[in-house]
Amino acid sequence: MVYAKKSLGQNFLIDQNIIKKITNQTKIENKDVIEIGPGKGALTNEIIKKKPKSLTLIEKDTSICKELNLKYSKHKNIKIYNKDFLKFDVEKVIKNKTVVFGNLPYNISSQILVKMIKMKNWPPKYTDLIFMFQKEMAQRILGAFNTSNYGRLSILSNYRLNIINKFNVSANCFFPRPKVESTVLLFKPKKHTIKIKDLGNLEKITSMLFSNKRKMINKNIKKIFKNNKFVNNLNLKLRPSDIKPEKYYEITRLYEKIF
């Protein structure tokens, strides 16, 4: 018997209606599919029913991996990796037009999303990401300009992805039962984006400016650009939340030109 590990943020999805609803968000038949953190395989079982071309499971928990290997040993099109996804080179195994599912551990969900956003080759090989997050985290990812949830994560996420808010999931659909609700989001890669050489620079700039979210940007923008003339072309009395995503992308591009 495998029990959920709190250290790995495990909450196993047990509601069959929700499981079906997740797998119905996109076409799976004859597609290459990756599932991040399959756990005991509840979502995996439903994916298999929809006849994917191949299925790759990436699971950090060694004891769960042993169970998965036994459970799916007869399926020749299933490959299982006992790996920490954050350290795993997913670009080496992902195939063209792959669909990626993940009931993500709450404690590393944003890091997993950022990893998928920062793919070296863009557009990426995946066509759809169907991820479940803690509801509060999902709201931060969706956070539109001029809303309280607008911030670093929404600016980075919207740079490369179209994001669709699909549905909320009650805490009662999991075991053990978490203290919060969850939300399923669907992400589709944008083919054309404002050209930024290194997304790490966008992360750096948004991190510095949002470190003092309620204060004017004057001090932090000068730390980024020193005494560069660019500072004169920006309203330094603005707060980070007053700046539209496109402006952050523009600032990042200019930073890359100068440095």
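Above is the first protein from milestone M3; the second protein from the same milestone is given next.
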Amino acid sequence: MRRCAKVFVLVSESESHSTTGPRRSSGMAHVAEGAPTHPFWKSQRAYILASVAGVVGLGNIWRFPYMAGQNGGGSFVVAYTFCILAIGIPISVLEASAGNLVDRGPVGLFRHINPRWGPWAGWFIVTMLVAIMSYYLVVSGWTLGYAVDAVRGDLKTFEEFTAGFNSLWYLLAIGGLCFLVLLRGLRGLEMTGRVLLPLLVVIVGGLAVYAQSLPGAHEAREFYLRFDARALLEPHLWRMAASQAFYSLAIGQGMLITYGSYVPRNVNVVTSSTAVALTNSAVSITAGLMVFPIVFTFGIAPDVGSALSFTAFPQIFGSLPGGLYIAIAFYLLLFAAAFSSCVGGLAVVLAPLRDEFRLHRRKAALVAVGVTMALGIPSALSFSSPGLLVGGIPFLDFMDLVTGSGVVIVAGIVGAALIAWLLPRRELFGAMNDPGRRLGPLHYSAGWMIEVGRYLPIAALAIILLGWLG
């Protein structure tokens, strides 16, 4: 067996015997005596909690509101919800099931599919994840900075916070913290899934309820909950909605494949992936209910971009009784959610470095964090004194547009098609471990999810052609 890094509730190799149960034996290769065992989730509940911890974070509270603000509010919410149900859940199931079938991350999975070109496809996914993590670390640094300022009782506006080189310094701080965690293993991060994230959800939900009492709440609901049917005919809207669905669920980024490789055979992947996707979507939509009443109350432009949430949040905390204490709790928990996603993403990058190049954990962690931080410097400088721009927009927004709203869709669709066409259907369906359901006399199974993966590229090409013809 090859060594694999475990994400979130998973433990380092040296701890695997003391914290996990017996690994599934079906299809397992012989493991030499003394070699580290392949770790796995203890239960379906642990898998769901870890997956929620991995995907719920800044993609929901930071990215979703600003994407909705830039793409028509309610029309975007409708398109996003449809993409989650019709595309996001099936592809999530396919990726997790494929990882479960071969017990490997993205590089190992695609090598299993085709030894010649498969590793290139796997490394492309890892490279894209590095690009996404490069600016994700910057935004996570903002959460750390805001948490520090909240504790100090000195919350600043976003313009004041990003003056000078704060974004760069906090990028370096986040990278250093991630390196330390990756170096020592991932013990203790199970708390993020079990305690901190539920608290974050409670605080976000409470603030969403409070925000409905603000003067701009009615205008916000008009913008956020009503949709224009004509806008739903625009291909650009669907591309943005699909990109957010892929981004927030970590589709096409190797995470779901890696998580799936640690799933015991008795776990229903369909039920688990559906629970994760619906929880993720609920947090995203609730975040919008929290942000947009603030936006319209304080006259903030809803299409301001990636700084939207960090512009809006300090406003509401200043108007709340005991707002400083709520701000401290919110930003500390937001940082915990962001940081756990950073560590999870970097752990996925670290795993193939150890597997393919046989690097020691220290060297693999140094390479993973070092390369990602280096690529994140331009994004940090785009919100600092230099103000690095590309085409008139901050470099960070440019990176998010290219990777988070572009390449990730291609990677997710192509990857799902390769999985659905090239892995044996019977084995893939078996890895889902879904016995099917009955609705009266009708019996239906999750096999249709494989068909979604197979024919989604055709639907995507049709949408692109309609956009060109339009």
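Note on the second protein: The CA atoms of residues 168 and 290 lie 28 Å apart.
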